[in-house]
């Protein structure tokens, strides 16, 4: 998989190609060649590709993996401040915390749009299937992009231990 450093290296070559085409286009205009306007389009296209590659050199494509995190699925994303992820109902408190850290690392990017004063929040939920074919959503925790005053971490993680205890009690019928 390409890294941001790889994209930056390719950007250098694309920039050189853009400058070369700009010089050839300038020569075409001075010399009065018939296809000079086509060269303007080619130069513009290569310039757009160069800018795109330069943009890709800032944002990593790789996903962060936190030890102890379980696989999750993004079930709702408003594109700004609200994200919901689905986790299995058998998750433990430590695995939930690691999963929330991983989700925050992968989903909370500076490019997220939001209104002034909104705090980006990821909520972890699971489905509990009750008797009679009824399913109930249970929110197990959340992570907010607010620095935690107690630990100094850049994120505030809240785990609903009472909800996790209810899940464990429901799963253990003894």
Give structural notes:
The chain has 174 residues and is α+β, with helices and mostly antiparallel strands. The chain has 2 domains: 53 residues; 99 residues, no CATH class. It has a 5-stranded mixed sheet with strand order 1-2-3-4-5. Strand 3 and strand 4 form a beta hairpin. Helix 1 packs antiparallel against helix 2. The longest helix is centred in the first third of the chain and has 28 residues. It starts with a helix and ends with a helix. The model has no long low-confidence stretch (mean pLDDT 87).
Characteristic key phrases:
alpha+beta; 4 helices; 5-stranded mixed beta sheet; 2 domains; 43% helix
SSE arrangement:
Layout: H1 4-31, H2 36-56, E1 73-77, E2 82-86, H3 93-107, E3 121-130, E4 134-144, E5 156-159, H4 161-171
Parallel strand pairs: 2-3
Antiparallel strand pairs: 1-2, 3-4, 4-5
Average predicted local confidence, pLDDT: 87
Count of individual helical segments:
4
Q: Shape, please?
A: elongated
Question: Which regions are unreliable across 5 or more consecutive residues at pLDDT < 50?
Answer: none
How much β-strand is present in the residues? Answer: 15-25%
Order of helices and strands: HHEEHEEEH
Radius of gyration: 25 Å
Q: Describe the strand arrangement of the main beta sheet, using strand numbers.
A: 1-2-3-4-5
| Terminal-residue CA separation | 48 Å
| Record field, number of beta strands | 5
The helix-and-strand class reads alpha+beta
Level of helix content? 40-55%
Domains, number: 2
Largest sheet, in brief, is: 5 strands, mixed
Kindly summarize this structure in a few lines.
This protein has 174 residues and is α+β, with helices and mostly antiparallel strands. The protein has four helices and five strands, in the order H-H-E-E-H-E-E-E-H.
């Amino acid at each position: 998989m390409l890294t941001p450093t790889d994209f930056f290296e390719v950007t250098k070559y694309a920039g050189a190609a853009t400058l070369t085409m700009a010089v050839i286009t300038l020569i075409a205009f001075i010399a009065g060649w018939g296809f000079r306007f086509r060269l303007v389009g080619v130069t513009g296209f290569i310039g757009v590709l160069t800018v795109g590659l330069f943009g890709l050199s800032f944002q990593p494509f790789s996903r962060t993996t936190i030890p102890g995190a379980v696989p999750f699925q993004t079930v709702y994303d408003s594109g700004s401040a609200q994200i919901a992820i689905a986790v299995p109902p058998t998750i433990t408190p430590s695995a939930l915390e690691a999963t929330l850290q991983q989700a925050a690392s992968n989903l909370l990017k500076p490019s997220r749009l939001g209104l002034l004063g909104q705090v980006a929040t990821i909520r972890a939920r699971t489905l509990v299937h009750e008797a009679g074919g009824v399913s109930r959503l249970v929110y197990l925790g959340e992570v907010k992009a607010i620095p935690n005053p107690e630990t100094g971490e850049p994120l505030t993680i809240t785990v609903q231990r009472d909800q996790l205890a209810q899940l464990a009690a429901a799963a253990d019928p003894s």
